[in-house]
Amino acid sequence: MINGILNIYKEKGYTSHDVVARLRGIVGQKKIGHTGTLDPDAEGVLPVCLGRATKVCDMLTDKDKTYEAVLLLGKTTDTQDITGTVLSERPVDGVTEEKAVNQIRSYIGEYDQTPPMYSALKVGGKKLYELAREGKTVERKSRRVMIYDIRIKEICLPRIRMEVECSKGTYIRTLCHDIGESLGVGGCMESLLRTRVGRFSVEDSLRLSEVEERAQSGELSKIMLPLDGVFSDLDQIILKEKYASLGYNGNPFLYRYVETQKAGSEEPHDAEQFRVYDIRGRFIGVYRYEKKRGQFRLEKMFLDQDELRRQS
Question: Looking at 18, 39, 204, 306, which residue is catalytic?
Answer without folding.
Answer: 39
